[in-house]
């Protein structure tokens, strides 16, 4: 599950440790900030219960482990003292590092290939799904080698005009079949089955 | 109403008169070719009646005039002898040319600004909607000056990895509010209300 702007970006231009979502990028996730399920996951009270909450909640419940990239981890400053995942998280990196536990989330730093990382995450997921949280380059990397079965795009109705594209040069090798669409006034959730193009 | 790939393109790379939809671009419109409403509009029999047909049919019925860009007109070779529009079409161009009637479609070549072109199209539309058919640069031009009220994106579940982006550098000046979503196994139709960003 990843949020993308209607013009295809997951972060604005100039993203980095000082500017995690890039210029204007906080707008991409605006639909989340008022959402009850997202707030609860982030230890915040209140928020609205909408159709978006149900989609979020459904994903949270199905997720037994998370894989994400080092750049995303660094940009988010490791999500501070209380990361929202509350499941084992595997961070793809070139620099080996000791595992790190923060509240209900453990971060394991993995220097393995995607296939091996997915095995480790599957073993830790207790029969639930492994969620690929991003960033874009990690998602592309997994899609290229056929390791992503499903992609949920939360299509945010904003335009950034530039930034980090979700799909980059991925192109025609991938086949996507829309299997579910849920819309709200804030965002459009599209679930795709992912396979290799014939 | 315009069809865009999930990675944001309305045509593949290297589009032109010899290659109207660009490299791989015919895949963008694959969802249409089997569709009853589209086939009927193009004088072809058969096809499937799906939820996509209903969306198409609804748009066709609402449309009283069409505006499109010269590049699109040229790339399509003027749609041959039996253009599918069957309503007055206004072609934005820098080169004045005599009006052209082909079967039920008339092409008027307009060298005016977008606002004036829209007035001409409205007068010709007999109380129905004016549809901006594209290409991308014409849609961007109208959006920039606040002349587009509604945008229907048919989101085609394919990736091209490059080509002609629908939104280009349009960015944050535009506000889009999703007001309707209809999904099928082939394509996701999202209707946005368009306004200027606050």
Explain what you see.
- The structure is a homodimer of 198-residue chains.
- The radius of gyration of chain A is 16 Å and the shape is globular.
- In chain A, strand 5 and strand 6 (105-110) form a beta hairpin.
- In chain A, the strands form 3 sheets. In chain A, strands 5-6-4-3-7 form a 5-stranded mixed beta sheet.
- Chain A is built from 6 helices and 11 strands.
- Chain A has helices at residues 30-33, 36-41, 51-62, 70-75, 114-124, 136-144; strands spanning 2-5, 9-11, 63-69, 88-92, 100-102, 105-110, 129-134, 150-156, 164-165, 174-183, 188-196.
- The first copy, chain A, has 198 residues and is an alpha/beta fold.
- At the A-B interface, strand 10 and strand 11 of A face strand 10 and strand 11 of B.
H/E series of chain A: EEHHHEHEEEHEHEEEE
Straight-line distance between termini of chain A: 25 Å
How much of the sequence of chain A is in beta strands? 25-35%
Return Rg of chain A in Å: 16 Å
Report the average pLDDT across residues of chain A: 94
Low-pLDDT runs of chain A: none
Described by the principal axes of the CA atoms, the overall outline of chain A is: globular
Topology readout:
Two copies of one chain form a homodimer.
Chain A: E1 2-5, E2 9-11, H1 30-33, H2 36-41, H3 51-62, E3 63-69, H4 70-75, E4 88-92, E5 100-102, E6 105-110, H5 114-124, E7 129-134, H6 136-144, E8 150-156, E9 164-165, E10 174-183, E11 188-196
Parallel strand pairs in A: 1-8, 3-4, 3-7, 4-6
Antiparallel strand pairs in A: 2-9, 5-6, 8-11, 10-11
